[in-house]
Amino acid sequence: MTPATTSEHEAARLRALERYWLLDTSREQDFDEIAEAAAELCEAPIAVVNLVGDGRQFFKAEVGLGVRETPLETSFCRQAILHNDFLYVPDAARDPRFEGNPLVSGEPGLRFYAGALLKTAEGQPIGTVCVLDTRPRELSERQRRGLMRLARQAMAQMELRRSLREQEEQRLLHERILDSATDYAIVAMDPQGRITRWNTGAERILGWSEAEMLGQAVDAFFTPEDRADGRPAVEKRLAAETGSAPDERWHMRRDGTRFWASGEMMPLTSEGGELIGFLKILRDRTGPRVSEAALRESEMRYRSLVEVSPQVVWFGDEAGNITYCNAYWYDYTGLPSGETGEVGWMGAIHPDHRERVRDTWLAAARSQGPYEIEFPLRRGDGQYRWFLSRAQPVRDEAGDLRSWIGTTLDIHERKVAEERFEALTELAPAIIWFGNPDGSLSYLNDRWYAYTGQTAEQALPLGWGEAVHPDDLDGLLRAWDTARTREIVYDTEARLRHHEGTYRWFLIRAEPLRDASGVVIGWLGSNSDIHDRRQVEEELRKAREQLHLAVEATGTGIFDYDLITDTLEWDARTRVLFGLNPRAPVSYKVFLAGLHPDDRDWVDRAVKAALDPAGNGSYDIAYRTVGLEDGIERWVAAKGQVFAADGRAVRFIGTARDVMQSRRAEQVLRETEERYRLAARATNDAIWDWSLATNHVLWNEALTVAYGYPPEAVDPTGDWWISHIHPDDRARIDASIHAVIDGTGTAWSDEYRFLRADGTYADILDRGYVIRDGHGTAVRMIGAMLDISERKRAEEHQRLLTGELQHRVKNTLTLVQAIASQTFRNASDPDAAREAFAARLISLGRAHDILTRSSWTEAPVIEVVEGALAVHRGAATARIRASGPGVLLGAKAALALALALHELATNAAKYGALSNEEGCVDLRWHVVHEGETPRFCLTWSEQGGPPILAQPSRRGFGSRLIERSFAVEVGGEVKLTYAPTGLVCRLEASLASMQEPRDEVAA
After folding, report:
1. Are strands 920-928 and 888-890 parallel, antiparallel or unpaired?
2. At 381, which helix (H) or strand (E)?
């Protein structure tokens, strides 16, 4: 297609759009409901009824968009009009047609589009009904069909409005034609004879202006004698009875002169045949010399008027034979000019309607009454269009029928619009109905029957009331009677029963339909389901109540500034914030006067900035006030929003609350943070702040100073920290710190090696404190890394010195004396006692060796266990299985545990699991983090030894030694269980007592 062809097609499309006169018009409920139905059908946040104009797209209706017009170059609908009926884009980001489109790549980030084309009857695309979303999605076949159905509904609405406008233009044309017939006084009146229309010819002939005559009795231009004889009433009666009352007689002008006129009075009836008034046509026939000339001139003018009439005008004789048709008839039908025979005009009528039209015409001719019928007429090109044909009999002075005059008006557009409107009422999401002036209904669309389950026979004309909730029926009927009596819009709400028995709220509205004279001839109504809206309103009411209670509970003040009337309103709380009594008058000047002098100017500027229409209208500041009556200084936080209309700010509403305490707290916090910053700079400890929710770690400057890492080399995450721990320590530290985080404790401390920037490792003592939320979940952890490399080297040196003192530690006389006393007291076998005493001294010596390596301050539990059990393992190492976490034990705890394990192993070798070849011992220990105090637990379990058939009758020395060495020394608990499968011993004490403080050890 060439550019010239494209331009011609676009011009034709724009002309087709202009014929609907919808661009730049206001919103209309019918189109809004179509957009809302599209959004609901497709479950999309955005839906529009869009008209594509010249370089722009105008939204006749929109949901979720907030604008009425956008440029065409970036629109999706520019693509839609290139398609026949439907454009579907599941994901615009993957569609090459929208590559680089700012609406896809930028805000609002549109991804999904589906649009059904709006096409005229001639096939011109003029817009779309479309839905959009900011996320990709699929469109079901049902949604696609529904969207196309809504597009047809939108097109039907547009066609209906176009048809109504053209009919109104036709009516105005007729009025102009009447006004242009200045040789005729044409006077319309109501049934009582009061003048309702007075054309220009009447003003010229009779002398009265229309303003003077409207509402006056038609008797005014009758002669006094005719008025006395009741001639006006006679003419009206004859016109009503026979359809016409012609006469020739004298009439009166405004200046009192008389003129001879020929006239005719005809009844005006509604489409239903109801008398709605009369039409009086007068012709001035004054002067015998000019009467014939005036008659010929008048006939010529009338014939000219008929010939140029945009409708078929025809005459018939008294027998009903057509004698004349104007040029419009021949131009339309293509029949030979002058052809008026029945065969000719009957042949132009659609075959399916000929017999009906002929019977109606003959019946009117026989009855000599008005003739009116609708039927399709064939155009010269063979196409049929609907016409409305009307005729009135013309009578002579005696009232005898002399001829017929008729018109045939093209009503095709109206007929099509009516059919489309009928289809639209069936497709509309609301219940549509027609009411009669007496309150009964003549029509209900299928939505009513589908919802209520009634049939047409049950609902019409008055049975519809059975579907109304009994509590709502009386109020509904009163509103209906009031609307009909006062001829106003009918608007009410009521609950209607669903066919399943449930009730839903509906908004019931109806507009009065009036004829040309303004008489109400019926009502067009709709029932819209507002049940969900009512529920939302109820929830809104509750929310407002809750807001009121919240305002009451939080002590928040409210201000409301009407910028149109310059009226400022404060509630009592806001007045308190400015040191005023509850009844003190307020204004903007009072507001400024109550501000702290240092804050007054900038707060005034902040208010003016919020009121500026170019801004966003938001207002969120904190300022100081000085009480106007009490002199108290307060800090106030204020938030507000400006509302604008027609480009100017009209209202400013917001809240104000006392934030004095929070300001003081903020000051304290700032001072604390400043002290923290100074302390962090003054120390070489690497202080860290770890957000557990985001895994973000904030370090102080010591990480650079002490460990050589520049800020840009540090990834501020917990993963970076754990990755720089020595591989041999990494798993242990990860488990150690998460045991505290995942548990209930708050303090964590551990040692590990940390990689410096130069590749060497530093020995680190790291301590952290866990911060938890109200549910006990760890949300943050703060701590410090202390470089203890020097201390570690000093400890290593001390360990060498301590080794030299092993002999003296082993000869600790006090403990040896206690063991000797316990071993030999009441011993029955000296040899056995000596053997036990030697073994105990050996175990004690091994414990001393372990403590000596740690300078008598602490010993790893695994070394204590291995030292105590080494003599019993021998070649059967696998028979004693020991496992547990790394725990450092204090000196007392280490010695007590070594003696206890020695006694347990000795007993197992003599009587228990180690006394045969199959038995084994399972030794496990762990730290329990329950409650506020962690506890150390160790369990000795024997299996496979000789079964224990009975509980021991007395407690031996071993049991007492265990209790003495463990329970007494560290305050622990000892539980011995003699199960049939073997002895189970459970040792438990607080972790703190097992790791006794250094000062206590030193003492």
Report:
1. unpaired
2. none
Q: SS3 of 154, please?
A: helix
Amino acid at 296: R
Task: HSE, CB side, 13 Å, CA atoms: give it for residue 374.
Answer: 9
Contact 850, 995 (CB under 8 A): no
Tell me the three state secondary structure of residue 314.
Answer: strand
- CB-CB contact of 14 with 6 (8 Å): no
Beta-sheet strand order (sheet of 275-284): 195-198, 184-189, 275-284, 258-269, 245-252
- Cα torsion 835, 840, 844, 850 to 10°: value is 90
Is 259:282 a contact under the CB 8 Å cutoff? Answer: no
- Helix, coil or strand: residue 101: coil
DSSP string, 692-743: TTTTEEEE-THHHHHH---GGG---BHHHHHHTB-HHHHHHHHHHHHHHHHS
How far apart (Å, rounded) are the C-alpha atoms in residues 494 and 531? 10
Q: Scan for tokens 């400024």, then name that residue.
A: 592
Neighbours of 412 (CB within 10 A): 17
Work out the number of other CB atoms within 10 angstroms of the CB of residue 588: 15
Tell me the pTM. Answer: 0.28
What pairs with residue 226 in β-bridges?
A: none
Dig out the tokens for 197 from the structure: 């229309």
Q: Which residues, 6 or more positions from 37, have their beta carbon under 8 angstroms from its beta carbon?
A: 150, 429
943 versus 878: the higher-pLDDT residue is 943
Rounded Cα–Cα distance for residues 471 and 593 (Å): 57
Q: Which of 338-342, 548-552, 766-770 has the highest mean pLDDT?
A: 766-770
CA distance 845 to 851: 10
Nearest to 203 by CA among 222, 174, 182: 182
Copy the structure tokens of residue 254: 């405004």
Q: Are 144 and 86 in contact (CB under 8 A)?
A: yes
Give the list of residues 6+ apart from residue 419 with CB closer than 8 angstroms, or none: none
The token pair that represents 436 in the structure block: 């009669």
Give the pLDDT confidence of 220-236 residue by residue, as tens digits: 889 999 999 999 998 88
Are 114 and 144 in contact, with CB atoms under 8 Å apart? yes
pLDDT at 1000: 40
Report d(CA 414, CA 387) in Å as an integer: 10
- Mind giving me the DSSP string for 781-814? EEEEEEE-HHHHHHHHHHHHHHHHTHHHHHT-HH
Using pLDDT thresholds of 50, 70 and 90, give the confidence band for residue 540. Answer: confident
Residue with tokens 């007068």: 282
Q: How would residue 249 be classed by pLDDT, with cut points 50, 70 and 90? A: confident
Q: Encode pLDDT of 811-824 as tens digits.
A: 354 445 545 655 56
**Residue in the block written with tokens 């012709």:** 283
Residue type, 797: H
Mean pLDDT for all residues in the chain: 84
How far is 706 from 683, CA to CA, in rounded Å?
10
Distance separating alpha carbons of residues 470 and 460, to the nearest angstrom? 19
| CA end-to-end distance (rounded Å), the chain | 105
In the structure encoding, which two tokens stand for residue 478, read together?
């009163």
Q: List all residues 6 or more positions away from 940 whose beta carbon is below 8 Å from its beta carbon.
A: 901, 904, 921, 922, 923, 983, 984, 985, 986, 987
Enumerate residues 6+ apart whose C-beta is below 8 A from 867: 843, 846, 847, 849, 850, 898
User: Phi and psi dihedrals of 646, rounded to 5?
Assistant: 55, 40
Q: CA 820, CA 448: separation in Å to the nearest integer?
A: 107
Cα separation of 932 and 127, whole Å?
A: 72
